[in-house]
Amino acid sequence: MKILFIGGIKSGKSRLAEAYILEQTKQKPYYLATTEFIDDEMRDRITAHQQRRQDGFITLEEPIELLNVLKKHPTPVLIECVSMWLNNMLYHQHTEGRILQELTDVLLLPSDMVFVQNEVGFGVIPDNPLARKYVDISGKAAQLLGEKCDQVFFCCAGLKLRLK
Amino acid sequence: MKILFIGGIKSGKSRLAEAYILEQTKQKPYYLATTEFIDDEMRDRITAHQQRRQDGFITLEEPIELLNVLKKHPTPVLIECVSMWLNNMLYHQHTEGRILQELTDVLLLPSDMVFVQNEVGFGVIPDNPLARKYVDISGKAAQLLGEKCDQVFFCCAGLKLRLK
Amino acid sequence: MKILFIGGIKSGKSRLAEAYILEQTKQKPYYLATTEFIDDEMRDRITAHQQRRQDGFITLEEPIELLNVLKKHPTPVLIECVSMWLNNMLYHQHTEGRILQELTDVLLLPSDMVFVQNEVGFGVIPDNPLARKYVDISGKAAQLLGEKCDQVFFCCAGLKLRLK
């Protein structure tokens, strides 16, 4: 099973995704953290996430090599989050084609995965070309996930709504 | 009953919330306006809201002391809106902890309340640290409301979708 | 029948709307392209849309005179998109009243129409007054469409959710 939790900033998507994977699986799931660049604000967010998770998960850290890591650590895994991975890939000058291909390959793996993604496309189109590029690839990645996942949940106000 | 109407700018959330509270209650409901800072643009918005409400409501105005006012004016009340109150609280240097505690206390009051809130987290993460802080606390407040309210409606294009 | 597909940037709304109108109609539908200002980035988007449509549609181009064109080309028609038309109308200094009146008149035509619109109001309120004005009129147009359309679909991650 592949499952997507998509929602805005602080929509509760991570908490909902964590609760979901813990409910659904008997074995201790993996938690794949994709964060690469860490400033103080980010560190506070990570700490808050870690405190919430406690030791319910086995934590992996990989900002770039999503496919390689997921091949080795089979199942089930929470990918937290797709948005940060997209950001890292763009920062390291990977092309859109390469990024979407890697995501396609990840989705062909047989293992159980829960993806968390920020929805970023419901505001005004950004002035900044880089932000526009990010919004675009984020939407394309979301469409790919939306197509290939078995279940998709839209998150808002800490609640989830089934899209698929 | 506690009810939340959450949606984007001009999503119709205020109109939907007003119609809802008027349908549900026989007595004339209170309308708690939380606006503090008023420029010409804001004045136009307020006038538009007032014209629509006409005299269906008893208007109260309180930008900060949400708990105190709600304790005194029991029920039912439309809080318009949570987002402006959060903004005022941050402007007056209240901490996130204090703000979320006050909202928690409000939600423990037994009276019937309908909350209106702007969803602001579905765009790109703002460059501006203050805007980021606002988006964060707004999402945390929405999660608190989403957890404690009996009903939650997501608003878009003047329509509502039940989240809870 | 009037139908609205509303969603964020790259939410899949155009693709969903195209698939929907092709499924629902036996005759070849019109495709009303409202784009006026074309830079390289826009050209790439248009080309991508055209390649996807191939020759399933009869393409019309009209950035401003929505009502006049729709009167002449009766049915069924996909309007791609309302957001670009709003943008063009504001650029050409049409007032909000005039713009919403034209949209009202369009919605009174008896022909079958599928509208595509960007939802832009779920981020932070923009600093820029023009962007704020755009977000406002976009929301008002969406509420008008939401009220008058027979069906409304909210789009996210390439999936659609029925709002009405």
UniProtKB/TrEMBL annotation, chains A, B, C:
Domain of life where this protein originates: Bacteria
Protein's UniProt keywords contain Kinase: yes
GO biological process per UniProt: cobalamin biosynthetic process
EC number: 2.7.1.156, 2.7.7.62
Keyword Nucleotide-binding: yes
InterPro entries referenced in this protein's UniProt entry, alphabetically: CobU/CobP (IPR003203), P-loop_NTPase (IPR027417)
Residues at which GTP binds: 7-14, 61, 80
Metabolic or biological pathway, per its Swiss-Prot or TrEMBL entry: Cofactor biosynthesis; adenosylcobalamin biosynthesis; adenosylcobalamin from cob(II)yrinate a,c-diamide: step 6/7; Cofactor biosynthesis; adenosylcobalamin biosynthesis; adenosylcobalamin from cob(II)yrinate a,c-diamide: step 5/7
Keywords: ATP-binding, Cobalamin biosynthesis, GTP-binding, Kinase, Nucleotide-binding, Nucleotidyltransferase, Transferase
Active site: residue positions: 49 (gmp-histidine intermediate)
EC supergroup of this enzyme: transferase
GO molecular function terms noted in the UniProt entry: adenosylcobinamide kinase activity; ATP binding; cobinamide phosphate guanylyltransferase activity; GTP binding
Reaction(s) this enzyme catalyzes, per UniProt: adenosylcob(III)inamide + GTP = adenosylcob(III)inamide phosphate + GDP + H(+); adenosylcob(III)inamide phosphate + GTP + H(+) = adenosylcob(III)inamide-GDP + diphosphate; adenosylcob(III)inamide + ATP = adenosylcob(III)inamide phosphate + ADP + H(+)
Function (record text): Catalyzes ATP-dependent phosphorylation of adenosylcobinamide and addition of GMP to adenosylcobinamide phosphate.
Family named by the database record: Belongs to the CobU/CobP family.
Protein name, as recorded: Adenosylcobinamide kinase
Organism of origin: Methyloglobulus morosus KoM1
Gene: cobP
